[in-house]
Amino acid sequence: MGSLSRRVPEALKSSKYLSFSQPFYKLSWLSTLLGGNSLYGRLNYHHFGLSQAFSSYSRHDSKENGIDLNQYPPEKIRNFSIIAHVDHGKSTLADRLLELTGTIKKGHGQPQYLDKLQVERERGITVKAQTATMFHKHNIHGADTHEGSSFLLNLVDTPGHVDFSYEVSRSLAACQGALLVVDAAQGVQAQTVANFYLAFESNLTIIPIINKIDQPTADPDRVKAQLKSMFDLDPSDVLLTSAKTGQGLEQVLPAVIQHIPPPPGKSNSPLRMLLLDSYYDEYRGVICHVAVVDGVLRKADKISSAATGQAYEVLDVGIMHPELTPTGVLLTGQVGYVVSGMRSTKEARVGDTLHHSRSTIEPLSGFKPAKHMVFSGLYPADGSDFEALNNAIEKLTCNDASVSIAKESSTALGLGFRCGFLGLLHMDVFHQRLEQEYGAHVISTIPTVPYIFEYSDGSKVQVQNPAALPSNPKKRVTACWEPTVLATIIIPSEYVGSIITLCSERRGQQLEYSFIDSQRVFMKYRLPLREIVVDFYNELKSMTSGYASFDYEDSEYQQSDMVKLDILLNGQPVDAMATIVHNLKAQRVGRELVEKLKKFIDRQMFEITIQAAIGSKVIARETISAMRKNVLAKCYGGDVTRKKKLLEKQKEGKKRMKRVGSVDIPQEAFHELLKVS
Ligand SMILES: Nc1nc2c(ncn2[C@@H]2O[C@H](COP(=O)(O)OP(=O)(O)OP(=O)(O)O)[C@@H](O)[C@H]2O)c(=O)[nH]1
């Protein structure tokens, strides 16, 4: 294989999409760390029984594990991640590499080994980045042999969905290279482009892999041409694989070892390690994932946090192989875990530098904080369960630090939380995890994006909750700004017309339009974030029979004519149902909301009016007429058991209701409102 192409394509240099500050070939582990964002995966004990694995490992020392990390100085280490568009085969490829190196057993009966969360398995998507350490014998002449020297390879499987690109960028901070996996039939898609640039900006060496070549519709030559035209990647450098049949996989690890540079830290400098991620284990306390940038960390060392100055003793240290495996030491360039008696994940600040307490060091620059794109209120479905929900949220946020949480209260729903998410899928996944892992049942309010409102007194505030806006905004609000995104859309050319119509309906502005090849078009749009958070992707997919791909990055705020839309039940505004919409769309959204509510609220003993209003102006109205017969009227007096049963049933039904004023609203009504855009 020839040397990998590292030239910056001219067309890309001028792209508004990116700024290129450093030559592609100039790899710098440190500058990547300083400028990058990274998060290492977590091993979730709840799903994995790792606590047992951990305690049994803990009884052995590193020699019993048969692993002597002293054999792996930086030149014998490669840190790389696998990046790709969603479903192009990252996790399957990761599985095969773990099998190939004997890290997991072949046919371990658990597809997508690194997708540990139940939600990941059910949805078939990767949500959390995950790391695994592998050992691989390689002979410098290229052929893998048992006589070759042994390398330590850290592999990071990253999520492909746009909501989790923050995880990808944080993962890349601990890597010097990336395998860019592209489906041989689907070719380059929107997240291929986005992830390529993330890796490219982090100065990583990129190894292109065309996967799924076993498919009947595979067309590797077409995909090679796309990689050349989009990223200037040399077709002769592209590896062809099938993670399903195993074809071509033997070339992957030799390419990793030959082309990805070793981590560049200094072994004889004072210890500096970057805290990549942390999670809480009820038996061990906080487990931190770390990358040792300089120096050496040993069990029983005294270490300090550069952020808080707090000192700790290293109780345990090791690698993820793929489960927590004590080694007693972590050397320069190695990635592993540390247990140091931290009691809460709040002490373990992602992006912090840990160092020996006795030495003074220059801290590494941490990560940019996660940017919350979507906010929603979370309330216990049963009002009395606030404490239970509070506990569940506290525990889950220990394992998903990318959610922001603040307590809030609603007249309609009582005490709850205002949560900030990276996107709508992230919000959905968070709900699912709350339910599945902690048994918490929640009602969430219509998601909103963070607006900036200016009031007549000149003050500007960020509004994350529509209820915080006064109901007559025309009187007091003088201006509003909404967040926008730069969206990349890739579609087959026959769908261009309908997608342009969709984007203009969503108030989009076209910035770029070009052909990737004779069949596919690449478009760049500026779109208000509000217009894409609900249902945009689904619509895009259904309009293109599933062929569209979409990715976005956040961009600047733009001034917009936004208004608060109130929902009133029997004349009373329901704060949890308020939303902020564009003035031109208010009428349609108001109509849809009241129609949805009419469908989901059952008839009650009295008439219910449902109204949508902007300030004092009602823009949509529906009425639910009063119920004539009581459920018990159906009983023929004497049948006590039947009566009891019916009362029980009614009580059960009530549990799933929220009473707002005098009106009972089923939980489903709240869920349905989330789908109105
Ligand atoms: N035919 C064929 N199918 C494959 C191959 N590799 C993966 N798949 C299938 O493609 C689907 C997606 O694979 P994953 O490995 O979950 O993809 P991913 O990129 O990790 O997906 P996300 O984590 O959701 O981004 C699964 O059904 C795999 O079985 C391959 O080489 N050939």
From TrEMBL:
It comes from the Eukaryota. It catalyses: GTP + H2O = GDP + phosphate + H(+). Its EC number is 3.6.5.n1. PROSITE patterns: G_TR_1, G_TR_2. Keywords: GTP-binding, Hydrolase, Membrane, Mitochondrion, Mitochondrion inner membrane, Nucleotide-binding, Protein biosynthesis. It comes from Rhamnella rubrinervis. Its main location: mitochondrion. GO terms for molecular function: GTP binding; GTPase activity; mitochondrial ribosome binding. This is Translation factor GUF1 homolog, mitochondrial. Promotes mitochondrial protein synthesis. May act as a fidelity factor of the translation reaction, by catalyzing a one-codon backward translocation of tRNAs on improperly translocated ribosomes. Binds to mitochondrial ribosomes in a GTP-dependent manner. Coiled coil: none annotated. GO terms for biological process: positive regulation of translation; translation. Residues 75-264 form the Tr-type G domain. It is a peripheral membrane protein. GTP binds at residues 84-91, 157-161, 211-214. Belongs to the GTP-binding elongation factor family. LepA subfamily. The keyword Mitochondrion applies. InterPro entries: EF-4, EFG_III/V, EFG_V-like, G_TR_CS, LepA_C_sf, LepA_CTD, LepA_IV, P-loop_NTPase. It is found in: Mitochondrion inner membrane. One of its GO terms (cellular component) is mitochondrial matrix.
